[in-house]
């Protein structure tokens, strides 16, 4: 097998040889019980995650969501049940080899303070026996991918980076061996709101390019809505209260517990998921109005309507505002789109 990221992962997960994205994950009746504890930390948990899917685990502290995620790479060993990645039971694999082929990002980032950023990213490729040339190329590639200039950041130490820059370096390290699976444990939780929003946007951009299979733990439902393909709302002992798309959960919470996570403003949250292009637009006319791209969300459109005081916006084909006007949208069209259509996720 050639000395490549894909070749390394394919030794463990064969499907990684034919795709640059992720592989499927199946958890089948997984339980975790600790000695001396009368109640299981995780009880009879079953779920299938599709290749390339980003699944959010959301729930209160202590519900078992992080424990469930950590059993996937065997940082915590399950008491019973099976966990399969690309059809292989992880309990039959070497724990060290398994972890080297699963990216792992935590809230505390976990960069080695005595190593440069380049050396931090190179840790797993070196453990896998990559050549110096291939490792150096991969480090430079990943720094550019997470928008850290290699000429500026490669030789710096973690203490010389801001919190947001350290998080990006942590994501780069998790991606170093091009793992088909990534586990992310509240990776943006320790950052300020502005930095967190920027990191979320960068992460969505990155996932659109790499298409990994990702389990992402968060206690922030708004973050789950913004990032996830599907959301698992977890109760005590990781009991799945609802597992569905963000739009489906916002439109029809399964019970009061799920509704409590959504909180107020469910309709506004759904607006952020629906692109303007999904609305039934009014015909274009000769009147000059503020413009909005068809790829922006209905929430963006409503915000612009309120800010400008206009009765409608001209909708422009494409992602910018210089394209051809394809129709008009006002508050009535926004409301109708929300009531009558299922949402498509908008990627910023």
From TrEMBL:
<dbReference type="Pfam" id="PF00005">
    <property type="entry name" value="ABC_tran"/>
</dbReference>
<keyword id="KW-0547">Nucleotide-binding</keyword>
<protein>
    <recommendedName>
        <fullName>ABC transporter domain-containing protein</fullName>
    </recommendedName>
</protein>
<dbReference type="InterPro" id="IPR027417">
    <property type="entry name" value="P-loop_NTPase"/>
</dbReference>
<dbReference type="InterPro" id="IPR017871">
    <property type="entry name" value="ABC_transporter-like_CS"/>
</dbReference>
<dbReference type="InterPro" id="IPR003439">
    <property type="entry name" value="ABC_transporter-like_ATP-bd"/>
</dbReference>
<keyword id="KW-0067">ATP-binding</keyword>
<comment type="similarity">
    <text>Belongs to the ABC transporter superfamily.</text>
</comment>
<feature type="domain" description="ABC transporter">
    <location>
        <begin position="25"/>
        <end position="262"/>
    </location>
</feature>
<dbReference type="InterPro" id="IPR003593">
    <property type="entry name" value="AAA+_ATPase"/>
</dbReference>
<keyword id="KW-0813">Transport</keyword>
